[in-house]
Amino acid sequence: MENKIILKEDIASAFKKLGIKSGMNIIVHTSLRSIGYVCGGAQSIIEALLDSVGSDGTVMMPTQSWKNLDPKTGVHWEVPESEWNLIRENWPAYDKDITPTNTMGAVSEMFRKWKGTFRSDHPARSFAANGKFAEYLTENHDLSDIFGETSPLAKLYELDGYILLIGVGYDKNTSLHLADSRADYPGKHFVTEHSAVFENGERIWKAYDTLFVDGEDFSEIGESFEKEHCVVKAKLGNATLRLMKQKELVDFAKDWIEKNRT
Question: Is residue 3 predicted with pLDDT exceeding 80?
Fold first, then answer.
C-alpha cells in the first residue's frame, strides 16, 4: 500500500497515461477514499478531470438521489413500515440546485455544485455534466426513461464517449444500465416508482413507470468484457483506474445479457 500524498499533478499524469486528452467526453465514477491521501481531495480530482478534457470536452457523473423513492423499494430500510406514509407525505421535492447525492461519493457531491455544471431533472437518478456538451447531456431527462434512449447515458453513447472508473468496479459502472435497457431477456419488466417533485409550483408525490433497475451481474459482465476488449489501466495511489469506450462496453454487455441472463 502506498502512503505518499497524491498531488493534482499526479492525478493529471495518471490521466495522461490512460490516454485522456482534450475533446473527450467522459462519464466518471470515483471512490476518493480508495486512492489514499489526495491533497485537495475532491477538488483536485475535478480540476484535473476538467483540465484533461479541456474546453472541447465534457465530464459527466451520476448524481443520484435515490432516497427520493418510495419506501417500499427498500431505500428507507431504517424506517418501520408503519411510518412510510410520513415519508411519502414529507420527503422534500427534488431541486437540482439543492438536493444532495446519495452514496455517490465526495467527488460527485462536489461536482454537482461546481461552477458551470448542469444537472438533469430526474428526481432520483440524475446526472451532472460540465463542459462542451453538458447542457445537451443533461436536458430532458424523462422520469420514465432513467437509463434508456433519451437518457444522458444514451446521449453520451451517441457522442462516442468514454468511461473512467477511479477505484471502483463494474458494479458502479452506470453505463451498463443502458445495455440493460437495450437488451431483450426473460424477466425484463417495468415497475411503478414514486418520487417527490415540484409540479406547477406544488410539491407532489409523483408516480411514474420505468424499467426495473437490475445490476447484480455487472461485475461478471465487466470481468468478461476485459477478457475480450482493451481496457487501459493505470495506478493512482492505491486505486486502479480504468478507461474504456462506452460503446464497446454497452454493445458487449447487451449481447452478454441476452445470452446469459435468464
Answer: no
